[in-house]
């Protein structure tokens, strides 16, 4: 199975690591049951674990509104918890960000040019709006 998975990935797309790690049975049942592709989208769990992410990911994520409805609920939401964990100098700067964050449409409009490409890409990534199926799909 591992040999097949390696050849398949070389030619087509990445598969779930369990196929190369020998964690799957050799009878191909799991492979035939569904297409075990690796998706890399930013999902609900990723958003709720931002407080343990790298500082840059935390700061960039705070700039933008929560990606999906129900991700952030009022005063007790993830955005409030996230900014509370920032160092004081970042908390002061965070006060300049709109209460609900910058919308994706506004980000695309104001973050033009190469200088802002990384930040614009991050906004698209957390909103699953990159145009790349693997980045716009999560495990949920």
TrEMBL record:
Protein name (record): Uncharacterized protein
Organism name: marine sediment metagenome
Classification of source organism: unclassified sequences, metagenomes, ecological metagenomes
């Amino acid at each position: 199975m591992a040999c097949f998975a390696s050849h398949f990935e070389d030619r087509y797309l990445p598969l779930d690591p369990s196929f190369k790690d020998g964690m799957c049975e050799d009878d191909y049942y799991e492979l035939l049951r569904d297409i075990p592709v690796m998706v890399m989208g930013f999902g609900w769990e990723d958003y709720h674990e931002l407080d343990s992410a790298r500082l840059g990911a935390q700061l960039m994520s705070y700039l933008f509104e929560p990606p999906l409805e129900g991700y952030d609920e009022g005063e007790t939401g993830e955005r409030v918890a996230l900014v509370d964990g920032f160092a004081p100098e970042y908390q002061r700067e965070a006060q300049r960000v709109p209460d609900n964050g910058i919308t994706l449409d506004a980000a695309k409009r104001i973050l033009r040019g190469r200088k802002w490409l990384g930040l614009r890409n991050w906004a698209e990534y957390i909103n699953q709006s990159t145009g790349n199926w693997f980045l716009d799909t999560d495990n949920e």
